[in-house]
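call fold(seq) -> C-alpha cells
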Amino acid sequence: MSVMTLSGLFRGAANTVLPMVVMIVSAVINAILAPLLIFGWWGFPALGMQGAGLATACAQFGGAALASVCLWGGKAGYRIALRHLRLRTGILADIGRVGLPAAAQGCVSSVVGLTFNTVLAGFGTQAVAAQGLALRIMMLIISFIGGGVYQGLLPIVAYNFGAQNYRRMWRAYRAAAMGTSAIAVGLAALTISLTPQIVGLFTRDPELMRLGVLAFRLRIITLFIVEPQMMGVASLQGMGRGLQAMMVTMVQQALLVVPALLLLAHFGGVLWAYGAQPIADVLAVFVTATILVAAYRKYPPAATVRPADEVAAASG
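ret:
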C-alpha cells in the first residue's frame, strides 16, 4: 500500500520515472532472493515455498523503503513535515470520489471472473483452463499498451481540467485513445496469426489448445475499442467525475458481460460463452460515448480559459 500510494504522489508531481525505478528495484530484490531462500543457495536457509513468500515480503519492504527515502528526502519534489499528516475530510472525500472507479473495477473483475469460472466449469476443466490462459496472455499484452498510458493520461487531464484548458485536455484524450487503439489493431493482427504458437508455449493438450486459441482470439479482436474506453475512464477520473467513470467500468465489465455470458452459454455452449466479453465490449461503446459526449458538451474546447500572458499579448 505504501508503494502504491507513494507512486501515485510521484506521478502527481509529473515524475513517472521514480515509480518505475521503485518497481524495478522491488522486482530485482524478489528475483534474487527467491531462489536463494527457496533452495538454500550460498548459505541461505532452504525454506521452500515459505522462502518464496519471505522473498516477496523483503522485496515489498525494500520498495517501500526506497520510495519513502525519495519522498522524505525531497527527491520527488515534495517537502513534507509531520504537521502535514492530518486527516482532512474534504481531501479524503476527493480521493474516494476519484479512486472509487478503480476500487469498483477490482471488485467487479473478481466477481465477473468467478462467474466465468462457475459457468465454464459446467463444460469441463479444460474450458476453465482455456479461459484463464487466454486472460493471462491478454493481460500481458494489455500491459504493453494501456497501463502506462492510462497512468500518464489521468494527471494530464487533471492538470488541464484544473487550469480550464479544455482544448488541451481533449487533445490529450484523443491522442491516447487513437494511439492505444492503433497499437491494439497492430498487436491483434500479429497475435491472431500466431495464436496457436503463443498458446502452444503453455500447453500441449489438443483440447486445451483448441479452446485456448478460440478464447484468446475472441478476447483480442475487440481490444482496439476497449482501449479508447479505458482512456475515457481515465479522463473522467481526471475531471473528478468518478461516478460516471465507475458507470463505464460497471457497464463494460459486469452489467453487459454477465447476462451475455449466461444467455450464450445456455443456448450455444462453451464456444458461444467465450463470445460474451467481445459482445459486451461492443455494446459498451454506446454507453461510453454517451457519457463522454455529455462531458465534452459541458467542458468544450471553446470554453478554454486563455492564459493571462496570452490575453495581454492579444490586447497589446
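The chain has a mean pLDDT of 84.
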